[in-house]
Design a protein that fits this description.
about 500 residues, 7-stranded parallel sheet, 4-stranded antiparallel sheet, 23 strands
């Protein structure tokens, strides 16, 4: 393993691959103190107020003079809001699409509306927190014994949340929740859906049905506790309705589908300094392979591209698309300011322990998940993703809320990179987890599907790991259980983004 990683000749810091004692040599300098593994060391003098550069990009400013060999981290680096001069559509790399007849395939569930699922669940979706208990008890009635006669059904899942009332009946928060409910009600990984409400909540199921043209039928039902005359009767009727759906859902079987039918949520969480060097670029290469097949990658977490958005605007298919992304950045600057926060609230304490110093540094690594192809779409949170190729969805950096939006937008797979380690999983779209370093992979092997740490320790290339991740897309989409899926994760990770006042 190389003792350090320099990402660009213009960088004035390098990342050390193992802990260094004072006096240890790195390039032409000696460490002036202990440098933890994954942290940065100055390779050149940096004056107070001077730019600190990594990835050939600005990641912060020296809060005091930094000498060659000094540890560069939160104690001597300050954050400032970005003032990027945006370019639009100046880095458009052509995509060589694989001919349709030669595209890779997976075994998926083709729905009547043409969408393709990678799983076959029955969903119990709540409109409000008040119906959460009813939904959970309905879903809990269908354990392995109850489902034994329905091998093509992956399970009955309750999607419950803590909002739906005490909110405005219009505006960003209400619209986002309605989009989430619609997205889950019509997700291709669901064979059947039961929506359960209380009856008097702000987030009325009837409004959703009318707004989105949803029609009730054998595989789609709606009910509320007040009309059913109480909790117990609601549970009993809900169980009866789901039981009637099971034989119909079980008739659906997997058939060969082109890789172009895959839509993958590109996520990271519990990041470290290696995220932007190993796993995220490898996932980016996998995204490029998927786009060449006609598929779709969906990057999200707007606060975690802050400081890297100028790289994405250069890849926007036109100026209007790039400006949509910039508008999201400006909204988040205002959102954090009016709530007395900072865009640099992220990185988290764990991220910082892993070597990440500012959100600018974290974002430059996080954006690598999007590969190199043109940016073809920019979407609101939980908005249906209609365009193929590499796209972006507005969302918080909080993983459960972000993934909930991506799944609502149509993602039928999730790929999640992590350096510190993550126990995240999701339903109905299964999560594939990619470790950024071999040490964590060995420590959490029951949770990790792919070890991108081989890029540092095993001589693997980003392209080889990217191909491995892409091939796992196809296997998991065809029914192979990911590690998080095998552990049963995903029942508690449905977290719609709550925007606005709770009243």
């Amino acid at each position: 393993m190389r003792p350090f990683v320099r990402l660009d000749p213009s960088d004035n810091v390098v990342t050390v691959a193992r802990a260094l004692d004072a006096g240890s040599a790195v390039e032409d300098v000696k460490a002036t103190g202990l440098i933890p593994s994954g942290h940065k060391i100055a390779s050149a003098p940096i004056p107070e107020g001077g730019e600190i550069r990594k990835y050939a990009q600005l990641i912060g400013y020296a809060s005091k003079e930094i000498a060659p060999g000094d540890h560069v981290h939160t104690h001597n680096v300050e954050f400032r809001n970005t003032e990027a001069g945006y370019e639009f559509s100046t880095d458009l790399r052509p995509v060589t699409e694989v001919p349709e007849a030669k595209r890779d395939t997976f075994m998926g569930y083709r729905r009547e509306n043409g969408q393709v699922g990678t799983r076959n669940y029955i969903a119990v979706v709540t409109s409000v927190n008040c119906s959460a208990t009813a939904a959970r008890r309905i879903a809990d009635a269908f354990g392995p014994d109850e489902l034994a006669d329905y091998p093509n059904v992956d399970g009955v899942v309750a999607f419950v949340h803590g909002t739906g009332c005490g909110m405005a009946d219009s505006g960003d928060g209400f619209e986002a929740l309605q989009r989430v409910m619609w997205g889950y009600a019509r997700h291709p990984n669901h064979a059947g859906v039961l929506m359960v409400g209380l009856g008097c909540e702000m987030n009325q199921i009837d409004w959703l049905l009318e707004a989105y043209g949803l029609k009730q039928g054998p595989l789609f039902h709606a009910m509320n506790i007040q009309n059913m005359a109480g909790l117990q009767r609601t549970i009993e009727m809900g169980v009866k309705k789901v039981r009637a759906m099971l034989p119909l859902a079980n008739k659906v079987t997997r058939t060969p589908c082109p890789a172009s039918d895959l839509m993958v949520a590109l996520q990271c969480g519990g990041s470290d300094a290696w995220s932007g060097i190993t796993a995220n670029p490898a996932l980016g290469y996998a995204c490029d392979l998927l786009v060449a097949q006609g598929g779709t990658g969906v990057l999200a977490e707007t606060p975690e591209i802050y400081g890297a958005e100028h790289l994405l605007t250069r890849r926007a298919v036109d100026q209007a698309m790039g400006e949509r992304l910039v508008d999201l950045i400006r909204w988040w600057e205002d959102y954090t300011a009016r709530n007395k926060g900072s865009m640099d609230n992220n990185p988290s304490p764990g991220n910082k322990k892993g070597g990440l110093t500012t959100i600018l540094e974290k974002s430059l690594g996080a954006a690598a998940k999007g590969g190199t192809t043109p940016l073809t779409g920019v979407y609101k949170y939980a908005e249906p993703v209609r365009t193929k190729g590499f796209t972006f969805m507005d969302s918080p950096g909080y993983d459960p809320a972000s993934v909930t939006g991506q799944i609502a937008g149509g993602c039928n797979l999730v790929c999640f990179t992590t350096g510190r380690g993550s126990a995240f999983g999701s339903k109905p779209a299964p999560t594939i987890k990619v470790a950024t370093n071999s040490e964590m992979y060995k420590r959490m092997t029951d949770d990790m599907d792919v070890n991108a740490g081989d890029i540092l320790t095993g001589g693997a290339t980003v392209e080889e790991k990217g191909r491995e991740i892409y091939e796992m897309f196809l296997r998991v989409a065809s029914g192979e259980a990911s590690k998080s899926e095998a552990q049963g994760l995903g029942d508690y990770e449905f977290v719609p983004w709550q925007i606005g006042a709770v009243m």
